[in-house]
Amino acid sequence: MRTGGAAQALAYEKIREQIVTGNYPGGMKLIEERLAEEIGVSRTPVREAIRRLEQEGLVRRKKVFKPSAKELRDHFKMRILIEAHAARMAATYMIDDDLDELKETVGKAKAIRDDSAAVVRENKKFHDLIVRETRNPVMIETVDRMQSIIYLFSRAVVINKRPGLLDEHAAICEAISARDPEKAARLMEEHLEADLEFTLAIVDWEE
């Protein structure tokens, strides 16, 4: 049985993976004794892992976070404010090397569109590259803190194959490449609003 920091890290990764992959559904109670037995560690590292997941927003009161529709909208409002601004900044300041990386990410996601897990990774990379262009540590840190919840939402969008998702990425990339800040911001806002509406339609939300 692993102990210490290695056990806590293992417990955190295992529980987090089960949550973000949907194997631990929203509302499920996390029972320390059962999780410790499943993972092969003592209850202490499980308790610390749950506390860390609570800080990330994936767990609330020892239950897997199941957001309300309002909480989803609140998250997306923050994302839209930051990422529309980020797209505007990217169209103005993104250097050619970073633009090439963005284009590569868009192309790779299209080429592997049937591999949902890989598309989720490329989706995250696409948005991360653009958010980085805010050059604003507070905005970047805010998005970082939201990453676990963002991952849950974006995974639902990708797994359920929202129509137009990858084409929208390509259009945003094209606007950034054309150095059109207002168009890039508008397309990003429309893109995230489409993600929001799609997620609201496919998920059974808490009241």
From TrEMBL:
Name of the protein in question: Putative HTH-type transcriptional regulator ydfH
The species this protein was found in: Bhargavaea cecembensis DSE10
Domain HTH gntR-type: 5-75
Pfam families given in the database record: FCD (PF07729), GntR (PF00392)
Gene (UniProt): ydfH_2
Gene3D superfamilies per record: GntR ligand-binding domain-like (1.20.120.530), Winged helix-like DNA-binding domain superfamily/Winged helix DNA-binding domain (1.10.10.10)
Keyword Ribonucleoprotein attached: no
Entry keyword set: DNA-binding, Transcription, Transcription regulation
GO function terms (MF aspect): DNA-binding transcription factor activity; sequence-specific DNA binding
